[in-house]
From TrEMBL:
<feature type="domain" description="Cryptochrome/DNA photolyase FAD-binding">
    <location>
        <begin position="76"/>
        <end position="204"/>
    </location>
</feature>
<dbReference type="GO" id="GO:0003677">
    <property type="term" value="F:DNA binding"/>
</dbReference>
<feature type="binding site">
    <location>
        <begin position="79"/>
        <end position="86"/>
    </location>
    <ligand>
        <name>FAD</name>
    </ligand>
</feature>
<feature type="binding site">
    <location>
        <position position="25"/>
    </location>
    <ligand>
        <name>FAD</name>
    </ligand>
</feature>
<keyword id="KW-0285">Flavoprotein</keyword>
<dbReference type="InterPro" id="IPR036134">
    <property type="entry name" value="Crypto/Photolyase_FAD-like_sf"/>
</dbReference>
<protein>
    <submittedName>
        <fullName>DNA photolyase</fullName>
    </submittedName>
</protein>
<feature type="binding site">
    <location>
        <begin position="180"/>
        <end position="182"/>
    </location>
    <ligand>
        <name>FAD</name>
    </ligand>
</feature>
<dbReference type="GO" id="GO:0003904">
    <property type="term" value="F:deoxyribodipyrimidine photo-lyase activity"/>
</dbReference>
<dbReference type="InterPro" id="IPR005101">
    <property type="entry name" value="Cryptochr/Photolyase_FAD-bd"/>
</dbReference>
<feature type="binding site">
    <location>
        <position position="76"/>
    </location>
    <ligand>
        <name>FAD</name>
    </ligand>
</feature>
<dbReference type="Pfam" id="PF03441">
    <property type="entry name" value="FAD_binding_7"/>
</dbReference>
<dbReference type="GO" id="GO:0071949">
    <property type="term" value="F:FAD binding"/>
</dbReference>
<keyword id="KW-0456">Lyase</keyword>
<keyword id="KW-0274">FAD</keyword>
<dbReference type="InterPro" id="IPR002081">
    <property type="entry name" value="Cryptochrome/DNA_photolyase_1"/>
</dbReference>
Length: 412
């Protein structure tokens, strides 16, 4: 697998995947064919670039619509909308993320304090449980920084219901290693598997299903003996998460950016191209904070991707706009960077609930209070998030209308 953290690599991946994005995707996407070269032609593997904002959902959907039309690309479109839906859902219930962080830290401390828990946790993350499929995926995740969607579902299910480990430790393990590790998609998918997202509806991995959809892996189907039975109950939790829609920023026009401004590139918006800026910045500032995903160490493939993504993004933006680019180092104040470049305001791609926001907002908040921040939010997010109130269904049903509203027709 080749995951160069550049826009050129993202566009090349999209171009290579496009022929398979129609009916073929719908029919074959569930198979986990393994990481060997060429094995994964059935899915796009665009998630690291989408997560880093190196390529945008809008341009991906437009290209797929142009290649296949709305009917044949329905399934692929729906999957991309799952990403937008999860983001909108968490934005309306940020307490889920806050509780995840508190629960994760408590679970890590409890594991540290108990030898039995420590051993069980170490076996799981080191791929030494004796459940072949699970162990293969644990190694694959650490070594490649990516797992197929079906493998993520099976892995999370075995973690929760067979190994009976805390789901937040599993979500943390994913965040520490997935290049696409996303606070919304990851936390809410783990909660979905556990039966906490759709209350009472959990996902139980079955050995025959795993064997069927891993049959084309180079080593053959993966075995998974001794999994939790069909009568295993979902997890429950005492609290509900009431919904509150935050005020979303409107579209930014050239007049909003009339004075010299800086552009911030961060881990979820590492490239300027998908932002569609209506004016050119006088300075580019890069903030890479992948370490903020977890109190534990992050994996090497993720580190390389995250560092490269912001570094390449800064270099390409500086070249495109003919301006300087500077790194904003963790712990350093931001205001002096702006002062040195004589810019008052900074355009900040929306910081969604999660680790990117946790890492950057404390320093940005005082600037926001002074009216010095211009927030950039994509049109597709702005129109979709308000529909992410409960289940995915209303979002999936409205996908066609939402795309048309945003001018994403494949006919540009
Ligand atoms: C337990 C668990 C944890 C997950 N954690 C993450 C995560 O941290 N970050 C992440 O981006 N996705 C996560 N997913 C969703 C999904 O597994 C990945 O987005 C997908 O596997 C990425 O591979 P791809 O790009 O080849 O997907 P494709 O099948 O080619 O889909 C295209 C794009 O649609 C989006 N997408 C597809 N399926 C989903 C889905 N079920 N939910 C949300 N978005 C989706 C992704 O952006 C993806 O790149 C998780 C799923 C599970 C079950």
């Amino acid at each position: 697998m080749d995951f160069a953290p550049t826009r050129a690599a993202a566009l090349a991946r999209l171009a290579r995947f496009l022929p398979a994005a129609g009916r073929r995707y719908a029919e074959t996407r569930n198979a986990d064919n393994g990481p060997a070269a060429g094995g994964r032609g059935n899915v796009s593997q665009l998630s690291p670039w989408l997560h880093a904002g190196i390529i945008g959902e809008a341009e991906v959907l437009d290209a797929v619509l142009a290649a296949h039309g709305p009917r044949a690309s329905e399934k692929f479109i729906a999957e991309v909308f799952w990403r937008i839906y999860f983001k909108g859902y968490l934005e309306q219930r940020p307490q889920i993320w806050a509780d995840y962080v508190t629960g994760r830290d408590a679970a890590l401390a409890a594991t540290d304090a108990n030898a039995g828990r420590r051993t069980a946790y170490a076996r799981a993350i080191e791929g030494r449980t004796g459940i072949e499929a699970f162990d293969v995926w644990a190694h694959e995740l650490v070594e490649t920084g990516y797992l197929h969607n079906h493998a993520r579902m099976w892995f999370a299910s075995i973690w929760i219901f067979t190994l009976k480990l805390d789901w937040r430790l599993g979500a943390d393990f994913f965040l520490r290693h997935l290049m696409d590790g996303d606070a919304a998609s990851n936390t809410l998918s783990w909660r979905w598997v556990a039966g906490l997202h759709t209350k009472g509806k959990h996902y139980l991995a079955r050995a025959d299903n795993i064997a069927r959809y891993t049959a084309a892996r180079p080593g053959g189907a993966l075995a998974a003996f001794g999994l939790a039975g069909d009568d295993t109950p979902p997890l429950t939790e005492p609290q509900d998460y009431p919904r509150a829609m935050p005020g979303l920023p409107g579209a930014v026009s050239a007049s909003d950016l009339a004075q010299p401004f800086a552009l911030l590139l961060h881990d979820e918006a590492a490239h300027h191209a998908p932002l569609g800026l209506p004016a050119e910045p006088a300075l580019v500032i890069g903030a890479q904070r992948a370490e903020a995903r977890s109190p534990g160490a992050i994996g090497a493939p993720l580190r390389v991707f995250a560092e490269g993504a912001v570094a390449h993004g800064m270099a390409e933006a500086a070249a495109a706009f003919g301006c300087a680019a500077m790194q904003w180092q963790p712990g350093a104040p931001l205001a002096p960077l702006l002062g040195a470049a004589r810019v008052e305001r900074i355009a900040v791609p929306y910081l969604p609930t999660g680790w990117t926001r946790d890492a950057l907002w404390p320093e940005l908040a005082p600037l926001a209070a002074q009216g010095r921040i211009i927030t950039l939010l994509g049109e597709l997010d702005r129109v979709t998030w308000p529909l992410a109130k409960a289940g995915f269904f209303p979002v999936g049903k409205a996908a066609g209308t939402l795309l048309a509203e945003c001018g994403i027709t494949g006919r540009a």
